[in-house]
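Pipeline run #58 for the internal structure catalog. This entry was flagged by the ingest filter as a single-chain record with no existing model, so it goes straight to prediction. Upstream metadata was stripped on purpose; only the residue string is passed forward. Reviewer on rotation: M.T. Logging verbosity set to normal.
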Amino acid sequence: MHTKVKDQFIDQEYITITDESISVGKQKLLLQLAVPADRTGKPLSHSDVDIVGMSVSPSWTGDSVKAEMEKTSKSIGRKPLYSISDNGYNLCNACRDAGIPHHRDISHTFGTILNKYFSDSADFKEFTTVMEKKRLTYQLTDKAIVLPPKQRAIARFMNTFIWVKWAHKLLDGYDRLTDEQKEAARFMLDNKDLIEELNSIRKCMEYVEMRCKNDGLSKELARFLIWRITVDLITPKDGTKRMRNVGIDMFVYLQEECRLLQSETDVHIISSDIIESCFGVFKAMKSPDKLCGVTKHALILPLAISFISEKRRESFDFIAAMENVHYKDLDEWAGFNLYGNPTQERKDLTRKIG
């Protein structure tokens, strides 16, 4: 589906945010958002975006994503100024092959950097394993209040800092714990150096992310952030090799993203957080039965996102929408964009058997 937003972008540049990370059973939903290019200086909200593309496939290759991007560009009348996505090869390759300048989402990129230097480290693997065992051992006891939050199973480096912050705070207040609580948290004393190392990285990464998400990326901001990264992670005398390597990769990331900035006054969005929020809305609406796959109910999503804005709710012409959209239009969209519904197929099969 490609919504009619052409008029909105006749006289202004727009950017797109693309992702296909949500799966329902064996079906993956590809979502494309359009945003006016001048919406910088604050994190994007739902009222800033329009859903301009929504398609379903068992898998998305670079070529198939490119085809959807080109449909969107054609329906709007021109290509976006640039596009933002995570670091998936299919999304990156699609932008490259479609000739669309591409920014890598800052949060996913920083998660990838952490994964690069810590996922195979013996001390990190040992600590996270022990931490999870302790959490499961004490979760229904009085000691549970000092235990870590649950680690994310998928893309776990995206929320590493939740438990790093918890661990650092607990270390600072260790002497104030009761004897029983100290016993439960004692394993952290043996990993103090790792926790301090990760906390230094956390503070620097969170600051860089906060500035880029709030202000947008500019050459001036990038120069300041590169200086900050150098001071916090690369040059400290007590810094570790991993801290320096993480800092260097952050440094390189900002330099590479700045290549898309044409002038000192250019400001670009480099966060795709808003599309993750849109996926959250979809998850809240979809059937809990994964066999249903993605159904026509997905068409509620553009309306739900749009109606978060009071101004859009008040200006929406409900009568025209009800008069001009028919069931056959929904069936036609489903025929072009959806795959078979396994739940319905199961019903048909049992009916034949019966």
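catalog note: The CA atoms of residues 63 and 94 lie 6 Å apart.
catalog note: The chain has a mean pLDDT of 85.
status: ready for reviewer M.T.
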